[in-house]
Amino acid sequence: MEKLLRVENISKYFDLKSGLFKFGGAQVVRAVDNVSFELYKNQTLGLVGESGCGKSTLGRVILRLQEPTSGTVYFEDTNLSLLKPEELRRFRIKMQIVFQDSYSSLNPRHSIGEIIAEPMTIHTRMTQHEIRARTYELLNLVGLKPSHASRFPHEFSGGQRQRINIARTLALYPSFVICDEPISALDVSIQAQVVNLLRDLQKELGITFLFIAHDLSMVKYISDRIAVMYLGKIMELAGSDLLFANPLHPYTQSLISAIPIPSPQEERMRKAVVLEGEVPSPVNPPAGCVFHTRCPVADDLCSSSEPDYSEHNPGHFVACHYAAVRRVE
Amino acid sequence: MKPLLSVRNLSTRFDTFDGSVYAVNDVSFDLKAGETLAVVGESGSGKSVTMLSLLGLLPRSTWVTGSAIFAPEGFELDLLSVSKAELNSLRGNKISIIFQDALRSLNPVMTVGEQITESLITHHQYNKNGAHKRAVELLEMVGIAQPDKRYYAYPHMFSGGMRQRAMIAIAISCTPDILIADEPTTALDVTIQAQIVELTRRLQQDLGIAVIWITHDLGVVAGLADRVMVMYGGTGVEIAPVDLLYENPGHPYTAGLLGAIPSIAGSSADRLVSIEGAPPDLFQEPRHCQFAWRCRYVFDRCWKEKPPGYIISPGQVVKCFYDGREKTPRVEE
Amino acid sequence: MITMKEQRNENNKNDLTGLLIDEESDRNIRARLWYIWRLLWRDKSGLIGLIVFLVIIFSAIFAPMLAPHDPLKIDLHASRQPPIWTEAGNPEHILGTDNLGRDLFSRIIYGSRVSIMVGFLGVSIAFSLGMMIGLFAGFKGGRTDNLIMTVTNMILALPYLVFVVFIAAVLGRSLLNVVLIFGLTNIPIFVRVTRGEVLRLREEGYIEAAISIGQKTPAIIFKHIMPNLIGPLITLATFEMSAMIFYEAGLGFLGLSVPPTVPSWGNMLAEGRQFLTVFPWMSIYPGLAIVITGFSMNLFGDWLRDVLDPRMRRMKK
Questions:
Q1: Is A200 in contact with C4 (Cβ distance < 8 A)?
Q2: I need a surface site. Which of B10, B331, C8, C301 has the fewest CB within 10 A?
Q3: What angle is formed at CA C183 by the lines to CA C177 and CA C188, rounded to 5 degrees?
């Protein structure tokens, strides 16, 4: 399969020492720590993790909305890290992002038409008429009406705003779009609408998605492959049906087990794995495997040495000493 | 047996500069002692406003009508007609509430322990020492490690999950009859959410508190609730025992919501079922079924009048003119 | 369920392109004016503030037509006349005359010119320079920001009135000097507010969105940041303007504002001071003019602050 994006050993550390009070040793937040993966054309990779696991930072670092501390990102044959600011600005035609907060990502003082037209006015020499025509086309594409163009963001509901966001990202036919938790602020019935819309768009326009979310169950319906992140590292990556059928990492297993089943009988019968404790601070991540403090099957090895992130089965990557050996019950 | 709380025809309207918001329209339900009632709905469905109306926690220029008979052992009163002072003495004592945003509900300049003690001293005749001892006990009960140390911690030193636990500790400090949980897990991570759900379930069994659990997530409700009320556009469109609701939803909206839950058993190639359209405009006074715009079974009667509650099974009340089982409009008897 | 294609066809039916949308935007403007009127009507104090303020501006502009007398014409025969409604009142002079027989009413009307001029020009200088410096500091960040803010805070830490009196004493009495003094000394306040807003706005999602679609930095500043800055700055400008009008009168009273030949409210106060016990009207009416102007602008400013902050709009008092 053709690769669109190659992420190699990307790390992003934030230095907390820049504040007014600098006592104590170095305070470094390891938001993303040595992450590598590949993205295939016309596919969706789901990126799942709890808040603070670095998934959103990873998305921003890939697009160079934030500069990585180390590592490289290749977009087809281009090394994004080497692009100069002006080159990068022009390159943004190809890669876009849909943000989680559909309220703040639309300028309240611009009309919907202006918002969707903005990328076209920056990067193309389209005439007013062409821009207007394309704007209407885009509004249709995302299921809104052309007459909405003259309205303002506050007149729309959360789901509609997210459609407007999607229309803006699609204006210049991008080949790669990052969706940063686009549905987590939406109501359940609307979430399904947006997920279905994104799937249809992928089929029609051949876009490659990186879909970031904290909810495994929804991600499954849009992703070809899913990566599970914990404390800045990828714990497991596999095809989505495979990941659900045979999760190798204890963290993935407990995440899947935490998904509520919409059936009272089954829900009462089964015993969900409730993980103890909370996600440790990324300022001082645990030594060894970062998950060992909460892992129900961890032992001394896990707290002393860090497991490799390797291909356990073809296409199934995992970072665990006891992958497939020990299971969370 | 008499229900602990019996709400009848509750309607709440806000007057704003842009017009009136019909937030709650004609909601009726009962809550039995010790049971868990889940109130499910999307944002703007009126689920939170319903509860805030009962507790008198809404701003001025709000109009609340209807009745809410609260009848614990020993006395009986209508929450909607008692004085503010009486309501104040009930709140946090007989009826507690926890909110989604625990950080904002806790006072940032008081230690967590002090906040629990405060509630104990105001509502019960605890002395300082006794209250301190009880507060540490409560912290332990809600699963906070090292409770005697954490007593002296400030809210910002707690993580999201621990704050919600502290909120629960305050809420149960007076062993209330009713605990209202307003989306307590929405802001939390999946794994922490599971912990809080587990905790609430355990506390309820131990203390016999009736819980009203407000949520937008039908998935969580399945393992938690005894009965479920589904709200849409300010109206309780369906109330049913939890098993009945999941097996045999009576309202098209309930069915749609259930369909929209992604199933872990399904294949990733499946298409999610969605309910097309957007929630209703609450600035319009409801004169017909609020779901009519999005309903696939809609027919002319739905646009003419508001559906009354039809009892379709024991304990299952549905406000819909369409009979999903007979696949026909309902016939009046 | 409607498929996407069907829905799209459905949408195309409603696509009446240009005409419809232009009409709609026209309706939007009218709807907005109507909305503003309703907001004013709801908050009567804002309406009163606005009306009084407009009357003052009107009288400043059309002073020669409105004033019944030449404000500078000395008529010693008619000096120290009380207002018209007292027993000894002269129908020629509505509010009476001053020590030199000049018509007080005419002088007050002409005096508004000085106040409004100082207010408008002073605020314009402070607004434009302060906003530019603040934008620069907020957007540049780092060391530049630190330096600018240190200087700003140092100026803000000076005792304002003493500072202004000192400069006025050094520079001498002229309208230009007064405008410059108020304009320049108010820059730091505008810098601080602008910078704070820029820092807040920079975190807004739509700024990140603009960067992500490859928008150029100047366009981000002018298209996305500036329009959102205007609201808080206009509100600040209203309050600052009323403060400047007050301070100008204060300087005039101390004899440090415009030359004594120019009729200004502060000068009138100063002149009336020695007759305060015997002929109080000489001070009372210019004093009232100052108070009413400042009060109306504050009322209007309060209303503006509520209206320009979209979060406040939905609330009902």
A1: yes
A2: B331
A3: 140
User: Which residues in chain C have Cβ-Cβ distances shorter than 8 Å to A139?
Assistant: 11
CA distance A222 to A202: 10
Partner-chain residue, chosen from A157, A195, A240, that has the shortest CB–CB distance to B278? A157
Domain B1-94+178-204+215-264+272-287 class in CATH? alpha beta
Strand order in the sheet with B5-16: B19-31, B5-16, B62-70, B77-78
> Is B220:A267 a contact under the CB 8 Å cutoff?
no
Continuous segment of H or E residues that includes residue B26 = strand B19-31
**Strand, coil or helix: what is C173?**
coil
Q: Residue B240: beta bridge partners?
A: B228
Q: Which tokens in the block code for residue A321?
A: 């000493």
* Domains of chain C as residue ranges with CATH: 21-313 (1.10.3720.10)
A241 to B267: CB separation less than 8 angstroms, yes or no: yes
Tokens in use for A10?
A: 């990307």
Whether C288 and C34 have beta carbons less than 8 Å apart is answered as: no
- In B161-298, where do the E strands start and end? 178-182, 210-215, 227-232, 235-241
Residue type, B233: G
CA dist B155 to A38, A287, B51, C11, Å? 41, 28, 25, 51
Q: List the beta bridge partners of residue A209.
A: A44, A177
Angle (deg, nearest 10), helices B190-207 and B160-172:
10
User: What b/e readout covers A218-235, taking b as 16+ CB neighbours within 10 angstroms?
Assistant: bbbbbbbbbbbbbbbbbb
Q: Is A94 on the interface with B (CB under 8 A)?
A: no
pTM: 0.83
Residues of chain B with CATH 3.40.50.300: 1-94+178-204+215-264+272-287
pLDDT in tens, chain A (329 residues): 789 999 999 999 987 755 445 555 667 888 999 999 999 999 999 999 988 889 999 999 999 999 999 999 999 889 999 999 999 999 999 999 999 888 889 998 889 999 999 999 999 999 999 999 999 999 998 989 888 898 888 888 888 899 999 999 999 999 999 999 988 888 887 888 889 899 999 999 999 999 999 888 888 888 999 999 999 999 999 999 999 999 999 999 988 888 888 888 887 777 777 787 778 888 888 889 999 998 988 889 999 999 999 999 899 999 999 987 878 76
Q: How far, rounded to the nearest angstrom, does the alpha carbon of residue A53 sit from its chain's CA centroid?
A: 11
The residue of B191, B193, B200 whose CB has the most chain A CBs within 10 angstroms, and thus the best one to mutate to test that interface, is: B191
Residue C67 DSSP code: -
CB atoms within 10 A of CB C294: 20
